[in-house]
Amino acid sequence: MRTRVAAALVTVLSLAAAAGEARADGDADDFKTSCANCHTIGGGRLVGPDLKDVEKRKDRAWLVGFVTDPTGVLASGDPYAQKLLAEANRVPMTPIAGMNAKRAGQLLDLVAAESKLEKSRFAGGAVPDRAFDAKNVPVGRDLYTGAAGLKGDGPACIGCHRVGDTGALGGGRLAPDLTDAVARLGGRKALSAWLSAPPTPTMKRLFPFEKALDPEREILPLVDFLQDAAARHAPSERAPARVAFVLLALGLAGALLVGMEIAWRRRFRGVRETLVKEPS
Amino acid sequence: MNATPLEVLLFGAAPYAALALFFVGTIVRYRTRPFTYSSLSTQFLENKRHFWAQVPFHYGVLTVLAGHLVAFLLPDAILWWNARPLRLYALEVTGLAAAALTLVGLVNIVVRRARHRMVRASTSAMDWVVYALLLVQVTSGMDLAVSKTWGSSWFASVVSPYLWSLAKFSPEPDRIAALPFVFKMHVVGLWAILGVFPFTRLVHVLVVPNPYLWRRPQVARWYGVRRQARA
């Protein structure tokens, strides 16, 4: 009987331990996909602040509220949130889909546990980083324009982003100008981390974990290309490119109208007009 | 980004309501009043401005719709084509030119209907609703094409998956929740047009005599009728 009770107890404890490990793994995966693109734990600042001992700087209730609804807290004018925004070159924290107080609490538990370690696994060691390499600029340009396809079949950047004067009519305007992305996001390493798991809603859909950019062959050449673009061009609206686009389209439309006039030049104009002329 | 309740309604539920109206409405109308399936052409009443209304409008709108359809059905083909900036620009310029033709035609349609007494008399309230919806749709589309370039690429990569989620009856409105307001207006405009479709002269799209596109012009002549009338 005692043996059976002891076996049952061991089983229950094992299951509880396994459940705890599974939750810890789940939280680590959540941090990796939702937070590590902008934050390290003990590895210094990326786009957002280093989270080591974050609860010594701000209380948990505030942190849970901010993680759950960063847009709302920023919009409320909260002074600490505004300070964080200023430190991040006014790049606001991206809301995380499905975030709630429970999940935020679990992530903060993970951050607290990792902060106690001499070196956290989220210290930023996995973020691709190296010095600027001019040889990679053309490689990055081809990835940007789509001339070279991305490994995960993600769409080329030019469809939504513009970069300096690349492309006769420039890049897309749906999303931000990337010419100053290296400086805006806080340096090469921060941009590399951001690109490794883009957090914005649209980018997250386009580049999910299984379609992540290749660190060596894609992220670093893109960062080189963007750094080179920033050095050579000031970000601009490139109004002439947009005007040229509109003028080309209007010119083509005008030519097509002329073509219609020519193609249907023998159409009836007068007979019907006379037949149905309104009484004066 | 999570879609708001309003976005879930507009981009998750409204499409199905619009499509249900479209299919049920067109089928019921065809079964009960088949001879109302017509464009109710007023060409015979006025033909000069009619040419500059109908011809640019139809060639323009068919080109634009074909572009949207290809980007929806074959997004990878569009992304492959756009992988060279010159090809991307050629596609975008062509698309915007087609939209401009559509707008030229639509403005001429509206002006003609408003200014010509006999044509105005044959214009129903639903016609004006259709023209208003089409004007909003064409201008919002052109605004997106110019202010949020390059639409062919981001349609293929962002909008097409959303439309496919609708087709698979697993709507994902959050896919487009982060897109600009004008784009959302454009999408809601589409549901509105599909919803009113069965109650308007737009039904002629479903019975379009396709050979009109390539057949030789038909010439109508009156032999002696006018002389007899004078006599």
Helix content of chain A: 55-70%
Radius of gyration of chain B: 20 Å
Number of domains of chain B: 1
Give the beta-strand count of chain B: 0
- CATH class category of chain B: Mainly Alpha
Fraction of residues in H or I helices of chain B: 55-70%
CATH class of the largest domain in chain A: Mainly Alpha
Q: What is the overall shape of chain B?
A: globular
Number of helical runs of chain A?
A: 13
Q: What is the gyration radius of chain A calculated from CA atoms?
A: 28 Å
Instruction: Give the helix/strand class of chain A.
Output: mainly alpha
Strand fraction band of chain B? under 5%
Please, could you describe this protein's structure?
The complex is a heterodimer of chains A (280) and B (231). With 280 residues, chain A is mainly α. Chain A folds into three domains: 22-115, Cytochrome c-like domain (Cytochrome Bc1 Complex, Chain D, domain 2, Orthogonal Bundle); 134-232, Cytochrome Bc1 Complex, Chain D, domain 2; 250-280. Helices cover 55% and strands 0% of the residues of chain A. In chain A, helix 1 crosses helix 6 (101-116), helix 7 (137-145) crosses helix 11 and helix 9 crosses helix 11 (215-232). The radius of gyration of chain A is 28 Å and the shape is elongated. Chain B has helices at 5-32, 48-73, 75-81, 85-115, 117-121, 125-147, 151-167, 181-196, 225-230. In chain B, helix 1 (5-32) packs parallel to helix 8, helix 3 (75-81) packs antiparallel against helix 7 (151-167) and helix 4 (85-115) runs antiparallel to helix 6 (125-147). Chain B starts with a helix and ends with a helix. Chains A and B meet through helix 10, helix 12 and helix 13 of A and helix 2, helix 4 and helix 7 of B.
